[in-house]
Design goal:
Length: about 240
């Protein structure tokens, strides 16, 4: 072993030197050179850092650098994330997306163009005017369609989803409150209910008055009559015995 090489290393190194850092790594770890100023130091890591990809060999596992426009990669020729200003497409980083694709600035990828999709028109609504279906001859009717798929940035935009047209109907009067058969029936029931309530209250009052009157009469019958006091002056008058 070279005098500058040590086997009592730390940080995952199998062999190391004071000047170059790690020279080899323990099993399953990746060897990578990190630049510090003008100097390169070997380090051993469990996974490769951003901008590098790992390759395994029988004698050593190494981290190799991705292409310049690639932020992370699976191999040198297959990028998984691009650097700013580039769009990812099929493992490559492109400044401009191919024909038929569009740049997604949120994911920084080239994606398929999505066009708007809508449902069929709904049936026409009843002829209306100011929210009513009566009291007019000329009104409007509408129909609508729903958006099934919203378009992407370069996709065909959605058409109008509402249509309106004029309509003519046979004029009919709006049913006023209280004029219909149903309303008359409800009024009659309410009147009967109020009347029966008043009748019950009146009958209750009559019964109470009759009960009070009968009680007074019974009280008068049970009380004894006062006897009339005799006239004392009449009893003391002198008897005329001259005749």
């Amino acid at each position: 072993v070279h005098p500058n090489v040590s086997q009592g290393c730390q940080g995952g190194c199998a062999t190391c030197s004071d000047y170059n850092g790690c020279l080899s790594c323990k099993p399953r770890l990746f060897f990578v050179l990190e630049r510090i100023g003008m100097k390169q130091i070997g380090v051993c890591l469990s996974s490769c850092p951003s901008g590098y990809y790992g390759t395994r060999y029988p004698d050593i596992n190494k981290c190799a650098k991705c292409k310049a426009d690639c932020d992370t990669c699976f191999t040198r020729n297959f990028c998984t994330k691009c650097k700013s200003g580039f769009y990812l497409y099929s493992g490559k980083c492109l400044e401009k997306c191919p024909e038929g694709l569009e740049a997604n600035n949120h994911t920084m990828e080239c994606t398929s163009i999505v066009h708007c999709e809508t449902s069929e028109w709904s049936p026409w609504s009843p002829c209306m005017k100011k929210g009513k279906t009566c009291g007019f001859k000329r009104g409007n009717e509408v129909r609508v369609k729903e958006i099934i798929q919203h378009p992407s940035a370069r996709g065909n935009p959605c058409p109008a989803t509402t249509e309106s047209r004029k309509c003519i109907v046979q004029r009919k009067r709006c049913q006023k409150e209280g004029k219909g058969k149903k309303n008359r029936e409800e009024k009659r029931k309410k009147s009967n209910k109020d009347e029966s309530k008043e009748t019950r209250q009146e009958n209750k009052g009559r019964a109470a008055r009759r009960q009070n009157r009968e009680q007074r009469e019974n009280n008068n019958k049970t009380q004894p009559k006062k006897r009339k006091a005799p006239n004392k002056e009449q009893d003391l008058a002198p008897v005329d015995t001259a005749h």
